[in-house]
Write a structure and sequence with these properties.
Blueprint lengths: L18 H18 L5 H23 L30 H5 L1 H6 L6 E4 L5 E4 L2 H8 L5 E2 L24 H9 L5 H6 L1 H15 L4 E3 H6 L1 H10 L7 H12 L5 H24 L5 H6 L2 E2 L2 E2 L2 H15 L1 H16 L1 H9 L4 H11 L6 E4 L3 E3 L2 E3 L4 E3 L2 H5 L33 H18 L4 E2 L7 E2 L5 E2 L3 E3 L3
Parallel strand pairs: 2-10
Antiparallel strand pairs: 1-2, 3-7, 4-14, 5-6, 7-10, 8-9, 11-14, 12-13
Helix pairs in contact: 1-2, 8-10, 8-19, 10-11, 11-12, 12-14, 17-19
Length: about 475
């Protein structure tokens, strides 16, 4: 993993280390932190253990270099794929995507569409118009399998994510009211209090591992609150989230996490059926689908989706946003001096760091984006490529907190557009407001290592920040 070109994009100037440098630095940090554990107790020891787990994961990934899973079969080019459209792109394990995934996508913009032989073969649309069009045509682009490579194998589909209309519509109607603006407004006080408590704890330290100390616990505590669970359950969900979603090269580890999560959810559903509360699970138990009561396994399925969709994405959005602000004090100063800019800053940070990479499966032979698609073809709908389209955004490579008509697709489009977008926006705006009220100036710690992961959701593994306390 070499160092990135600092001129690759306007927001990718973080000087990452080589594999050997990163491994050596992380080994030193692991040894130092291990030596400190015996002197710690209570929450400080728990936080140190979480950071140690994260450091070990980052070290193992760095030492492995470019990661390739066992199931990454490379097929021959199908007859309907023109030879000139074949390009060896791997948005999951490619070293270019592990250095700067957004710059890696930018390199693909010289053609309207590509076909990659990785992960069984898949098309990559690069134009905003085509990507938006695919999202809005579920009859041609099915959501039956939304990941490349496929997610942990499950006996049933994730409702409603992996259903197409009209089946999708019935379940969407069940969860949509739970995350509508009115419902989010009712949770504003809890979101503010959760965020404020974390910032109050972090600010006096003068440093933080941003993911472990803030970007992971903040949305996870909100999620446990939504489920009606005590806040001390949050670390358990953080651990499950990392095992399930950040172990693409360890299928058995992901499968174990899925089993543990579902076992927990089954017990929770039975408890709420016996004793309802004012929470999402109880609301789902009182819901109906197509005029019939919703069943336990359907509720479990919906809660599992809320878990994987609501935690990792907000953590990723926070980490990319604060990385950018740590590297660009002029932008940070804008929102410190004028907090009224924060809502539009949230939209622009979501645009330039559109990190979600859903996939679709073609349902029938058809011509689309100037190529012939065949039934069963996989298609990647990268939201970052929409953000980078100059036909969609003027000055698309410039980060502008005053941008008008910001039609980014960070939350997707069409019938499967993210139902939790209102909650996510509220969490992001709250984080930017309350953090910068107490910690207006900060930077990435000198000599520390920042590592990234790619795949279905681009994110950071760690982000060490420092400031004057």
């Amino acid at each position: 993993m070499g160092k990135p070109d600092p001129n690759a994009s306007d927001w990718s100037d973080l000087d990452l280390l080589t594999v050997d440098e990163a491994t050596e630095r992380l080994d030193a940090e692991i040894a130092a932190l291990t030596g400190e554990l015996d002197a710690l107790a209570g929450p400080e020891r728990d936080a140190a253990n979480r950071r140690l787990d994260l450091l070990v994961t980052a070290r193992d990934r760095a030492a492995a270099g470019p990661r390739r899973p066992l199931y990454d079969a490379t097929p021959e080019r199908p007859a309907h794929v023109p030879a000139e459209l074949v390009r060896d792109v791997d948005h999951v394990f490619g070293p270019d995507f592990l250095v700067d995934p957004f710059a890696a996508y930018r390199e693909l913009r010289d053609r309207r569409v590509w076909w990659s032989p990785r992960h069984g073969g898949y098309w990559i649309l690069t134009r905003a118009e085509d990507i938006r069009g695919a999202y809005q045509q579920p009859d041609l682009f099915s959501s039956a399998s939304t990941g490349i490579p496929a997610h942990v194998q499950r006996k049933e589909k994730l409702y409603p994510l992996e259903l197409d209309p009209p089946a999708h519509t019935a379940y969407r109607r069940v969860i949509a009211p739970l995350f509508a603006p009115k419902a989010v407004t009712a949770r504003t006080a809890a979101i503010d209090a959760t965020c404020a408590a974390l910032v109050d704890e972090i600010a006096p330290r003068g440093r933080a591992e941003f993911l472990a100390d803030f970007a992971e616990p903040f949305p996870t505590r909100i999620f446990t609150n939504i489920l009606g669970l005590p806040v001390d359950e949050a670390p358990k969900f953080v651990a499950w989230n990392n095992k399930l979603l950040h172990s693409q090269d360890q299928p058995e580890r992901r499968r174990e996490a899925g089993i543990e999560i579902n076992g927990y959810l089954r017990e929770l559903i039975e408890a709420r059926r016996a004793e309802p509360r004012d929470d999402v699970v109880s609301a789902l138990l009182a819901s109906e689908v197509d005029g019939r009561p919703i069943e336990n396994d359907e509720i479990q399925n919906l809660c599992f989706l809320l878990f994987i969709a609501g935690l990792d994405t907000v953590t990723a959005a926070l980490s990319w946003s604060f990385r950018f602000l740590a590297l660009h004090p002029e932008h940070r100063r804008q929102i410190v001096d004028d907090p009224a800019l924060i809502p539009s800053a949230v939209e622009e940070l979501l645009r330039v760091h559109s990190f979600v990479n859903p996939a679709r499966t073609v349902t029938r032979d058809a011509e689309f984006a100037g190529v012939q698609l065949r039934e069963g073809d996989r298609v990647l709908l990268a939201t970052a490529l929409v953000a980078q389209d100059p036909d969609e955004f003027a000055d698309e490579a410039t980060v502008r907190f005053d941008r008008d008509a910001n039609r980014h697709l960070a939350f997707g489009a069409g019938p499967h557009r993210c139902a939790g977008s209102h909650l996510a926006r509220d969490e992001l705006a709250t984080a930017l407001t309350l953090w910068h009220r107490q910690i207006p100036d900060y930077e990435i710690a000198a000599g520390e290592t920042v590592t990234m992961h790619a795949g279905g959701v681009f994110g950071l593994d760690r982000l060490p920040l420092v400031w004057s306390a």
